[in-house]
Write a structure and sequence with these properties.
- This protein is 26% helix and 25% strand.
- The protein has 112 residues and is an alpha+beta fold.
- The protein has a 4-stranded mixed beta sheet, covered by helices on one side. Strands 5-6 form a two-stranded antiparallel ribbon.
- Strand 1, helix 1 and strand 2 form a beta-alpha-beta unit.
- The radius of gyration is 15 Å and the shape is globular.
- It binds glutathione.
- Residues 9, 11, 33, 38, 50-53, 69-71 line the site of glutathione.
Amino acid sequence: MIDFYYWPTPNGWKVAIMLEESGLEYRAIPVNIGKGDQFKPEFLAISPNNRMPAIVDHDFEDGPLPVFESGAILIHLAERSGKFMPTGTYVLTITGNNGSTSHGTPLTLTVQ
Ligand SMILES: N[C@@H](CCC(=O)N[C@@H](CS)C(=O)NCC(=O)O)C(=O)O
């Protein structure tokens, strides 16, 4: 079971769509960011930058795994479901909103 900490914004929708399309079992837990739920200590323990979406994957082999940042969540769900991610060796390039990291250099990870 995956706990999905959610509020209906585009970042929340991304993960909601992925959960539905991947077929993983989940339950949605509202985080009302208009009322300040994102600053509650129990939520900050999962998402320390006080942003939703976030998940806790209770079926992770090493114990419950919290994941925050929508891109990281999408990658985790793709790996868990075996869907929407190429298999084998691939290069994953992560960049900031302006196409680079905060230092101006694209960050490239090779995942095998
Ligand atoms: N880079 C983050 C952005 C998440 C984000 O900005 N979430 C907003 C709503 S869309 C939020 O939780 N804001 C609450 C706050 O800033 O206090 C991601 O992609 O998950």
